[in-house]
Specification:
This protein is an alpha/beta fold and 340 residues long. It folds into two domains: 139 residues, NAD(P)-binding Rossmann-like Domain (Rossmann fold); 182 residues, Dihydrodipicolinate Reductase, domain 2 (2-Layer Sandwich). The strands form two sheets. The protein has a seven-stranded mixed β-sheet. Strands 3-2-1-4-5-6 form a six-stranded parallel β-sheet, with helices on both faces. Helix 4 links the parallel strand 4 and strand 5. Helix 4 runs parallel beside helix 5, helix 5 runs antiparallel to helix 12 and helix 6 crosses helix 8. The protein is globular, with a radius of gyration of 20 Å.
C-alpha cells in the first residue's frame, strides 16, 4: 500500500514515523509547506519515504490513501482534493475552522462515496473502547453521569492559540466526541463557563484557558466536561461513567498526573504523562492501522465527517454559551449556522 502524508509538523512527523512501521505500508510520499521538514522525514526513513513538492504531486504519485496533518485552514481543500481524485482520506480534526464550512465538506464527501476518516484518536484508546462496551452491554445500568476532562500541561504558543478557534473547538471537542462515542447519545443542550485569570493572550483572543461545560444528553443523562491549558503536573485525560448498576473510569492508571493526599497512599506511583503523544501513542497507532483497513476496503470509516460535524456543533454551542452566559440548545446553533 502506497500512502501520502501532507503536513509534517508535530503530529504529522509523529504520523510519518507510525506509518513507516505499519504492516502493509510499502511506501510513503510526504509533502510540507516547509520542504526541509519533508526532507528530514525522508532522511530518517530512506527505504520507505519519498518527498513531493506539494499535495497535488502527492496525489499524482498514485497513492492509495492520503493522510492530512496540515494546518487547519488547509483541511477542507486537501480533503476535497483527495476525494475528487477518488482517494480515501484520513484528516486530523477539525474538518474546517468554521462549522458552515465543515457542513459544506460533509455534503460533498457524502455525495462522492469516498471514505473519509477524521482523527479523533480517543476512539482507539483501549480503555475508551472498553467504556463504550460497558455502556452498550448494559453493565452500568442506566447511565446518569459522565465526567470527561482534558488538561494540557501548558498553553500552546500564542500563534497557535490565535488560529485554534478557542478552547471548546480545539481542546474540549475531543471530550465532546468521546462523550458521543462512548454513550451513543447526542448532546441537546449545553451551559459553559470559563476563565482566563487575567492572562493577556487569552483575553486578547476572546478565549479562556480553563473551561467547564454541562452537557445534557438526549436521554436525560448529564455529562460534565472540564478543560485547562495549565495543568502543571502533566497531561491529564480521564473519563468517568456512572450508572445505576456500576461505575467505571478511563485514565485511572499509574501515570495519572495527580497526587493523592490520603495517608499512606502510593497510587499513582508512575511518571506522569507529559503530553498527548505519550498518553495516546497506542491509540494513534491503532487509528492509523484502522485507516489502512479503510483504504483496503476492509471496513467503513470508524470516525466520519458527520461524526466530526456533530462534535463541532457542541463546541459551537459552548462557545456561544460562554459569550452570552446562558444555556444553548445545539439545535439552535445548527439551525443558525448551517448553510442553507
Amino acid at each position: 500500500m502506497r500512502l501520502g502524508l501532507v503536513g509534517l509538523g508535530r503530529i504529522g512527523a509523529f504520523h510519518a514515523a507510525t506509518l513507516t512501521e505499519l504492516e502493509g505500508v510499502d511506501s510513503l510520499v510526504v509533502a510540507d509547506v516547509a520542504p526541509a521538514a519533508a526532507r528530514a522525514v525522508a532522511q530518517r526513513h530512506p527505504d520507505l519515504v519519498t518527498t513531493a513538492a506539494d499535495a497535488a504531486e502527492v496525489l499524482a504519485s498514485g497513492v492509495d490513501g492520503l493522510v492530512v496533518a496540515a494546518a487547519t485552514d488547509a483541511h477542507p481543500e486537501l480533503l476535497l482534493a483527495a476525494v475528487e481524485a477518488g482517494v480515501p482520506v484520513f484528516c486530523e480534526k477539525p474538518v474546517a475552522r468554521e462549522a458552515a464550512d465543515a457542513v459544506a465538506v460533509l455534503r460533498r464527501v457524502e455525495a462522492s462515496g469516498v471514505p473519509v476518516q477524521i482523527g479523533y484518536n480517543r476512539r482507539f484508546d483501549a480503555a475508551v473502547a472498553a467504556a463504550r462496551e460497558a455502556v452498550r452491554s448494559g453493565a452500568l445500568g442506566r447511565l446518569h453521569t459522565v465526567r470527561s476532562t482534558t488538561m494540557d500541561p501548558a498553553p500552546p504558543p500564542a500563534a497557535y492559540l490565535a488560529t485554534s478557534g478557542g478552547i471548546f473547538r480545539d481542546c474540549s471537542v475531543h471530550d465532546f466526541d468521546a462523550v458521543r462515542f462512548v454513550t451513543g447519545r447526542e448532546v441537546v443542550e449545553v451551559y459553559a463557563t470559563g476563565s482566563a485569570h487575567g492572562e493577556e493572550v487569552f483575553a486578547e483572543l476572546g478565549d479562556v484557558h480553563t473551561s467547564a461545560a454541562v452537557l445534557t444528553l438526549d436521554d436525560g443523562a448529564i455529562a460534565l466536561v472540564s478543560n485547562t491549558r495549565c495543568n502543571a503536573r502533566g497531561y491529564d485525560v480521564r473519563m468517568e461513567l456512572h450508572g445505576t448498576a456500576d461505575s467505571v473510569a478511563v485514565g485511572l492508571e499509574d501515570r495519572l498526573p495527580l497526587r493523592s493526599l490520603e495517608p499512606g497512599a502510593t497510587f499513582p506511583a508512575g511518571v506522569p504523562h507529559t503530553f498527548f503523544v505519550d498518553r495516546f501513542a497506542d491509540a494513534y497507532r491503532a487509528e492509523l492501522r484502522a485507516f489502512t483497513e479503510v483504504v483496503a476496503g476492509l471496513r467503513p470509516s470508524p470516525c466520519t465527517v458527520a461524526d466530526a460535524v456533530e462534535a463541532g456543533w457542541v463546541a459551537e454551542a459552548c462557545a456561544l454559551s460562554l459569550r452570552e452566559h446562558r444555556p444553548v440548545r445545539v439545535a439552535q446553533v445548527r439551525r443558525d449556522t448551517a448553510p442553507g
